[in-house]
Structure formats: C-alpha cells, structure tokens
Amino acid sequence: MAIGGWVPMHTHPGASELFVVIQGTIRAGFISSTNKVYCKTLEEGDVMVFPQDLMHFQFNVGKSPALAFASFSKASTDIYVMDNAWFANDLPVDILQKTTFFDPDQIKKLKGIFGGTY
Description:
single chain; alpha+beta; 5-stranded antiparallel beta sheet; 36% strand; Germin; manganese; RmlC-like_jellyroll; Germin-like protein
C-alpha cells in the first residue's frame, strides 16, 4: 500500500476477513452492527479480523509503503465498495439526497468522480 494509500469503506458479503500487517503502519477499522467503531493502528505482525458483512477500511499512515495480507473465511468472496454503490449508478440525485442527507451539489460531484449519471 503506497504512502497515504487506502482501501475505501467496503464489505465482503458472507465472509470474514483476517488482515495481517507484514510491513509498515496501517490504520484499520470497522463499524459494528450497533454502529460502534473499532479502529486501531497496526504495526508489523499485528492482526485484525473484520467480522462477516461489516463495513471496514484500511489506510497507510506510515512514512513508507506498507504490505499486508488478507485471508477470507470462504474461498470465493465478493467486495462491495460503499462509494461505488452510492455514486457509480443512475439513481436520481433527489433520491440520493433524501436517503443520504448529502447536498445535491455534493452528490453530483461524487457521481462525477465515480462515473455515475444523474
């Protein structure tokens, strides 16, 4: 993972993830089903488990590239990236505004970034 690099908020439907830092410093976390945030700065050798179906993220907070391995609880797992789900589509701006509380200009900007239409 490059300096300042990140893995955006995402989930793996039906699978848990075991995340092991091999090199560098990575900030990682997840949001529980009760909306409690668990976040930790991981160093070489540290491990974090992201429970099945929960939204989680990782980003490099170190001064050098980082390396980590991820293993999943099932052989074939999908990734569901939240930003893509919300903004890389043709869902109308007014519906997104009502369901996310984002300002219409923010939604249009994000749809432009993620390739969605409005």
